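R.M. (postdoc): so does anyone remember the format we settled on? I'll just put the structure tokens first.
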């Protein structure tokens, strides 16, 4: 296969040259300008789109096994490919929970022939109940890349201490859902002026910050690696920033919606439940802090927390709707609009957040854009205007705050596992 008219972006490419890429048997055979297709060789002209090593979303919910009415591994991978991701790490709040090796192996087996690499994140505790540690070494041998009880925090400090000690022996991170439940619930949105006006119970930022502070201290004490999931407040970013300065082994991620939308959207959108997620949308000050954290390196990775819910689950009163939105299909557009077009970060810096850092955190090898390497590629542009209509949703669920929104910049395809996926708008 010959892929023509592409601008490479990676740690060693700035996207300022145009090349063609020849692929044979899933490997990059040749990179050069003006390559011509040989007899019998399939060719595709990308018209000057960018190409980078394949992106990774390190925080998604694929829902299978147990909640296939929301999403399946196959439909989740369709959404990932449409968003430009060649790899995802999926959270363990499935049914059964991913707390035993057989569930890890089931997920890997189901994704074997799909064009997206699926890396299961296993539970920290058995059945995600927060009481006793799961069989971490066995889960790692089965293919798990990290541990998390996501959806719920590891609430007991002694359990978290033991988890960090065990996981550090395996050189794997604990990804915690940072939430002090006694402070946060029954909150349905960010606690503040908007929640007061709307008469909704709010979740204060301190509910997130208290748990992050605890986990940073435990990571310092044990030497373990704590990864802060879906960070969302200004003070939380400051806590991680100071911890990194002290040399504590802490990393973090931010969802695209948390550096784009604020809690005011819930009022503007008349209680649209597709704006309800956890952690909730915060204030403009918090949004600005997410951008600042990305710029100065405090925040390592961009993720989505892709959380599908069936239409009937979301089409209820706001306080009864489940938390979570889908996000993989729109992540690049939001990133492009908020970070690249505003010149906060350049393309190479964004590749750190989308390609290299997620895999570094999970101890995975990053794909390379060079001759002789396995072809694991994302194709994208930064200037195409398009509308994210329900027809363009590849996920099984439709719970996105960006439905019918005009966006700029799109992932136009991926190549991975010897398969080319081209994303056509419907």
């Amino acid at each position: 296969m010959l892929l023509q008219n592409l601008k490479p972006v990676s740690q060693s490419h700035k996207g300022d040259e145009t090349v063609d890429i020849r692929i044979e048997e899933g490997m990059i055979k040749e990179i050069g300008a003006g390559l011509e297709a040989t007899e019998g060789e399939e060719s595709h002209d990308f018209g000057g789109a960018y190409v980078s090593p394949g992106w990774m979303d390190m925080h998604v919910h694929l829902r299978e096994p147990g909640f296939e009415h929301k999403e399946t591994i196959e439909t989740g991978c369709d959404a990932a490919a449409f968003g430009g991701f060649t790899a995802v790490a999926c959270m363990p709040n499935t049914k059964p929970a991913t707390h035993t090796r057989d569930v890890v192996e089931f997920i890997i087996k189901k994704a074997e022939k799909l064009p997206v690499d699926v890396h299961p994140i296993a539970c920290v505790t058995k059945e995600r109940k927060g009481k006793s540690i799961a069989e971490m070494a066995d889960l790692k041998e089965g293919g798990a890349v990290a541990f998390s009880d996501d959806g719920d925090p590891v609430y007991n400090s002694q359990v978290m201490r033991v988890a960090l000690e065990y996981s550090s022996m395996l050189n794997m991170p604990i990804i915690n859902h940072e939430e002090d439940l006694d402070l946060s619930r029954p909150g349905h949105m960010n606690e503040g002026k908007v929640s007061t006006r709307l008469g909704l119970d709010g979740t204060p930022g301190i509910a997130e910050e208290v748990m992050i502070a605890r986990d940073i201290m435990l990571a310092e004490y044990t030497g373990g690696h704590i990864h802060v999931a879906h960070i969302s407040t200004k003070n939380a970013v400051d806590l991680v920033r100071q911890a990194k300065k002290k040399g504590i082994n802490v990393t973090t991620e931010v969802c695209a919606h948390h550096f784009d939308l604020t809690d005011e959207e819930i009022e503007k959108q008349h209680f649209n439940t597709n704006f309800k997620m956890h952690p909730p949308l915060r204030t403009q000050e918090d949004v600005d802090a997410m951008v600042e954290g990305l710029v100065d390196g405090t925040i390592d990775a961009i993720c989505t927390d892709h959380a599908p819910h069936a239409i009937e689950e979301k089409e209820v009163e706001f306080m009864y709707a489940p938390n979570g939105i889908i996000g993989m299909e729109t992540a690049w557009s939001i990133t492009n609009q908020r970070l690249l077009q505003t010149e906060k970060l350049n393309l190479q810096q964004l590749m750190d957040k989308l390609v290299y850092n997620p895999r570094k955190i999970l101890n995975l090898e990053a794909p390379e854009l060079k001759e002789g390497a396995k072809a694991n590629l994302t194709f994208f542009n930064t200037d195409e205007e398009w509308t994210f209509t329900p027809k363009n949703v590849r996920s099984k669920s439709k719970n996105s705050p960006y439905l019918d929104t005009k966006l700029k910049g799109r992932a136009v395809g991926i190549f991975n596992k010897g398969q080319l996926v081209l994303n056509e708008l419907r």
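R.M.: ...and that's the designed sequence above, right after the tokens. Also worth knowing: The longest strand covers residues 377-388. The chain has a mean pLDDT of 98.
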